[in-house]
Protein: Membrane-bound transcription factor site-1 protease
Organism: Polypedilum vanderplanki
Amino acid sequence: MMKKRKDFVIFFIFVIINLFNCNTTLENEKDIQDEGLKCCENATDQRLIVEFSSSIVEHEYIIHFNNYYKKETRRKYIILALDNNSEIKNFTIVERQNPASDYPSDFDVIHLYEKTPLKGLDLLIKHPLIKSVSPQRIVHRTLKFLNKDDEQEEEIVANNENDGDTNKVNDNEDDIINYISKHLKLDTRTANLKNKQGECCVAEFQNFRRGLSSSTSIDTSQQQQQQLPIENNVNSHSNRRLLRAIPRQITSILKADALWSIGITGKGVKVAVFDTGLSKSHPHFKKIKERTNWTNEKSLSDGISHGTFVTGIIGSSKECLGFAPDADIHIYRVFTSNQVSYTSWFLDAFNYAILKKINVINLSIGGPDFLDRPFVDKVLELSANKVIMVSAIGNDGPLYGTLNNPGDQMDVIGVGGMNFEEKIAKFSSRGMTTWELPEGYGRLKPDIVTYGSQVKGSNLKGGCRSLSGTSVASPVVAGAVTLIISGVLKKMDYINPSSVKQALIEGATRLNDNNMFEQGHGKLNVLKSIKILSEYQPKITLSPTNLDMTDDYMFPYSSQPIYYTMQPIIVNVTILNGISVTGRVAEVQWYPYQNENGNLLNVSIGYSEILWPWSGWMSLHIVVNEYGQYFEGDAQGHVAITIETPSADDPSEKLNSTVNFSIRCRIIPKPPRQKRILWDQYHNLRYPPGYLPRDSLKVKQDPLDWRSDHIHTNFKDMYTHLRSSGYYVEVLGQPFTCFNASHYGTLLLVDPEEEFFDAEIEKLYDDVTNKNLSLIVFADWYNTTVMKHMKFYDQNTRQWWVPDTGGCNVPALNELLNSFGIEFGDKVLEGYFTMGDHHDMYYASGTSIVKFPKANQSVLIERDLVDQGSEILKLPQNGSHQKDLPEIDLKNVRVKHKEVILGMQQTVSTLSSRKGGRIAAYGDSNCLDSTHMEKACFWLLDALLEYSMTSHVSGLLKSMNRMQNIEFTEKTKPQRLLHNNLHLYSKILDSNDRDTKRPLQKCRKFNWEFPYFLNITRSFINEDPIITNNI
């Protein structure tokens, strides 16, 4: 039963629903008496800081049923589940008064007071008609406005030159508009509007008709120049910079006015905005079809302005214009004026959207909690009902692996942000997705990017304001999608989440300087996308469309060639099924090109059993076979995947669609062992599903470790450095028993949270001592007293919960290193220091070495550090203390003590007198992790790799060696925290017994596809899918 409950007992920490506002500039407009217009001349710049906190509602649960039932039926099922037990009497079903109350629903909310903890939850979970039980959650949002004068002043030099590329459309715009108008038989008559002299905002559209413009001109004599947002970076430095003028209308930049000119204005499409509401009398909107309130307040109006802004981007008809002014706008108020929301409010609102047959939903929300099953499942259900979901991808950039849910789901259009310089905004979250780690590899996201920096939208009571963030980019795409769909209403039978996504990504324009995990398929191109959708025929496509290791866009695949004996590279491909909501993979085949060296590749293919809703996945594992061990060059081929779907006209008729995935791999001869590094991914864990705390306890606003610790996510900078230094880095997603140590010079073990199998411990000892494999370890803090101090009281289980591990699982790491005579301690250490004359270092919540062999060739280095753990224990013990860590001058105030932080050891073979591999151990990993890095220590990693690969100790490290002066006294080493919940999601511990390990996981055996050789030379392009009918 504990395993079933793991999805809801821990997730109280992180905000699941999180409005993305990175940088905000408010423009308070002044009324112009004569014209009734607003002017931006005397704008007051402000910066908006958004803070979130969340907690579980005491004794309140969401009961999720397997189907939709009427209120009385649901009530009967709950009573039957609980009334059979005499101890469960005190429960009530919460009455929900909202527009969905009179319709069947698939969930209820109950108050449950139990004499015996968990008894009622167990009974509910066991009921055959109940799908899951989850805690009710409350989210609080706080907005802080800072005047620009309160911040650091900056000198800005604005460059008024307009970059023509910003507004360029690759295909001739007039030709596209003429094609669309003729193809769809639209009225091409236009009514040109001219701006009045001196007007700084744009007037209301008359009949929503506007003249066609091929470019956007900027009157720099009249328009106020605006500063691009300065990214939030603790190490940022302000100085002079050249900035281009920011265009006044986002709709003009993206050519929405060109579609308005032929009568495409959003009419006939229902678009819903899930946000903070909208005033009934707001002057910018003409077609507010319905406003619904899902909160516990009576008001339908927006008291915060975020919902107004988002709605304005989608459908405003005045001043700061929206994309689809004639669309039917449905307002779903899911946040109160006090910025509070509940999970159940969203679930009810989603159900109502399905009932109202909403076409497009904008969600400028998100969070890292992709295991919030009720929310995720409801999004899938929306997609299955042909609702186009557009969601912000997150504001956690520029770090990789920071995508937010639901924007990272296959069925959702995930939107990233760019600025008017045609660069990905620093705040925009980067891919890859991290659901699939550690054994697999992430999918391509975001799907698409668009302008999300300093974009104008509607203000609370009229006039315009400017916001930045992916919460801005999301309604830009949602508005554009609404506009596009309104132009192809005759093809509504073909409109679904996959067909719309296909049109967007095929029409997107690739940015020159950003890779696929930054920009997805490129920037939004409205005209190309509507042209594609206007002539759309249902089809299967792939995302990405191909793999080309010679194309820089394909980073990280382009960053390192492949070679014989290398760990398989993994490509995770999303299958977009525009034909049917469901389907299956009927056949996959591998076609190597004999004339293009394709015979040198082995390919293993996996795929989802069912494609639902409208999408699925295909995974490729690719290696170089023995025939390519001395080859240098490119190898090509393609995978053909056939998808079987039911016919829309006759479900009993099956349609087979075949689409090709082209592959081009760069191959080199096998590198020497001393250049090959193996990165351990298997023993890295992340939130969710467990309470895994951050590595640096100094950080206030990022409490969870959720970026996966992968070389292509938060360790990307380290990976790039290693590649530039000539090393080849491979990823191990299996136990240590699954790699051949003779191929590698060094195993790199950084910040592991997982346990180790006994067989792994034995094999690693043999690999190091007898097979000359070297080991480098970067550890982190682990202290049970500090962990207990970080505990919180969970009202659901009426138990105290603490982190399941520290920044690193030091007890498990000590077991791994015990045979080498190495142990880390339980202190939590922090401090600034130098190594040599030029290397400034910061130790961020690391640990110390308390045991290490002292041999002739050993190196031990110590530094003066502060006991951060003792300081934390002096703080109040409550759930919010992590936000209240005091700012302290670490360099001058606190008492420091000498601690051993680095050890280096040459091992000796157990089978002969020759030397074995080398071990280097350092007590902190934050200097390699880009998440909260203050001082990078890549130079130290270089020095340790030089030692591990060649046995050479750098002069700097040798000069700091204090081995002769260090005496290790008997110190306490960390013990595992009693009653922790690591076993609930560990791959190694028994889920039913935290003290027992599972049987050793078997190494994966790949089934290589039979090669169907093609003796032809192929150009590297994707062909249109082949569709056949099989009855």
Summary: Residues 470-486 form the longest helix (17 residues).
